[in-house]
């Protein structure tokens, strides 16, 4: 229960009469994780909308509840429904520098439509003492973001964007406090490339989709890869967005080595001994793995892999929401947009390559992707709500699975033909959050 000095809930007159609540009457109110006494007032604004007025010791907040959120009486408690908080960072910083992610308005709209208010927040702006959160949301398209004190949520959707932020004290406190208070959290952390490979390699029906991969260790092990004389990648185990990627391929004068860092690729030709030394130095600074190069098919002259975006549905089952092809810039080592990559709908590329068999390939992406997600979730544990897989098709027509991301980016949804999939993504997030809601309206089983 929160520590507000007083709470007033303003109801439209028809709804108040339907609920049998008179103006000035005291009732037990539940809104999000907050539960306590509230005084009922009749709304003076037109239309069917509810407003909650929170009188905190230091401020007053007025939170309008969209008309889709019709309250109910549940065992003598006036229930305004569940609330979802989206954790977008560890520290808010200066007020003027607060930003909401580009995808957040889609969640706000989906929450309004499905009767679950959504706000975004930073970990250091959760006031556990008073049971409140400085939450931000945009009430109407084209307007600014309102940052208000909200009640603690029923469910937290963890979208902390960086691994280093995940380890900061405010984020750790969110997980600890949420567990103690019975607040569900999903997307609890990141995956690393080596653990992902080891888990999937033990699954017999998935092993064939994985490129040869090894943890980069002593010079002898690195030398074995170099002496094999085949092209390979060195990837940071905890890396993301293509940063720190190294590509090595045989060259008449030794080895041609490309290093991708800070949006640029630098090339050099080195001897075999120099390459082994370079890779040994790399692994002394951070964990790396070695992975064989797969010769990917091309589209418009660009090598292509695919981002397969998976979501949990309202029943907790994995579903493919979208698949997009990412074409690598000719001078880049990866297909990431920040390194000049281009995004196309997967259907466009697959139809070009396979004509009438394109649907068969989409189904394979979905089937293999969902099997990968289930296998990872079973071993890693935790509560995953989404996953992004990087998959590819080689020139020989084989399907490959390269990486799995527990907090996938949203660049593929920026493509005009995939914007509708973002709406579906947002609706599925709300559905899955509702499954974990502590509210009687939730769909917990």
TrEMBL record:
Protein name, UniProt field: YheC/YheD family protein
Species annotation: Kyrpidia spormannii
